[in-house]
Amino acid sequence: MAIDRILKDEAMEEKGERARMASFVGAMAIADLVKTTLGPKGMDKILQSTGRGQEVTVTNDGATILKSLHIDNPAAKVLIDISKVQDDEVGDGTTSVVVLAGELLREAEKLVAVKIHPMTIISGFRMAAECARNALLQKAVDNKDDIEKFRSDLMNIARTTLSSKILSQDKEHFAKLAVDAVMRLKGSTNLESIQIIKKPGGSLTDSFLDEGFILDKKIGIGQPKRIENAKILVANTAMDTDKVKIYGARVRVDSMSKVAEIEGAEKEKMREKVQKIIGHGINCFVNRQLIYNFPEELFADAGILAIEHADFDGIERLALVTGGEIASTFDNPESVKLGHCNLIEEIMIGEDKLIHFSGVAMGQACTIVLRGASHHVLDEAERSLHDALCVLSQTINDSRVVLGGGWPEMVMAKEVDELARKTPGKKSLAIEAFSRALSAIPTIIADNAGLDSAELISQLRAEHQNEGCTSGIDVISGSVGDMAERGISEAFKVKQAVLLSATEAAEMILRVDEIITCAPRRREDRM
Fold first, then answer.
1. Which of 124, 299, 301, 395 is 20 to 30 A from 22 via CA?
2. Residue 143 burial by Cβ neighbours in a 10 Å radius (0-12, 13-18, 19+)
3. Which candidate in 36, 61, 64, 443 is catalytic?
4. pTM (2 decimals)?
């Protein structure tokens, strides 16, 4: 008995077969969970938190689904991690990466069952991944030099990305929004300057792209409603010190008039501060904190538009967009960079009034206003649009494009299969397994659309034996279709990231042969 007692009481340890089983099963369960959201006919999931708010999220973005799961299985956590990284890195392909890793493990499990060592499988997978990547590289197209063609590539990528999301009904409209927004960025992948404002009401097709910047605030009372050639000072400073605050201030005085004097002094201080701010020669003052009515009055008298309580993202973005800096002291006006824009006015969206800054210094900036039936729809629309924007901004940097619809997977599977035939030894079994895992992606896309996947995939494989074949699965007509004709394309970078992350994750899980769970900390009884 004494030998088992190395670990503490409740710690558990699983060795060899059992540990491997646990990791395989966990990883495959996760893959099966998000499998059904893959492809244009993928379904959505409702995630309901049991917390206080009972919040409900409706989504089919792989990363969002997995992020919200609380999971005990260590292998499943690895998969969740890769989908998060995929989301941060390229923005799209979060489902594909998990599904591919899951399929690789499914194949690996069969190989382990016939007594092939995990290390052999891993080295086979390595070779296969390298080969698949080269196959993709050769087939990728780059239209960077031809602006028209490149733009149509971008439109196709946006349409393809959006077609598996809630926006698929209006994908033309949103693809155009996304491409316009990203084209304005002129190659930077900084999505900060694209602002997305969600306003319930209207339908999704009422969404629009607005160059310039929209701040979700109302214009104060008695202030100019419209300013041309605005010089903007963006600040983060307290503008509420013109009264003695009751809380925490102890003032011992012998008469009420003394209190009035103190208040007078505070008011003077405030007036000086306002004078300093006005001395910058500005006509719009945006503050992150609140502005009391006294300084607001002073600003209104000077004809300066004062906006209070702008949220922090709004302020940072506004400073970025207008080319100003956020100031908090106003003693030396020459060192403060002011923001500029041509016109500030109030606009109405739905019920709400917002402030619109147009003609801003940074031409990249724009705002996408999303309209939709409910908050759930809007959140999901924002996620989908964010995916599209990420992919497009990555594509502008790395402009290689491949076709979509299961085409890249079939191309890779074919090459990998040929490699397996040439490779001697047990590795070849692993390489063959890799190619089977790759062709599982088009299989799942077809399954989700309710098509006969076995039939379609075998047709597809036959067609891919011809050189320069462009067929993939056309879910709309339910048959094998020409992807180049249908304009279904994806960014090369996304596909490459999916391939490499999935392989690495599968490798990592394969290497496991022991799982040790440490004992939970005991709570002392304080009663």
1. 124
2. middle
3. 61
4. 0.81
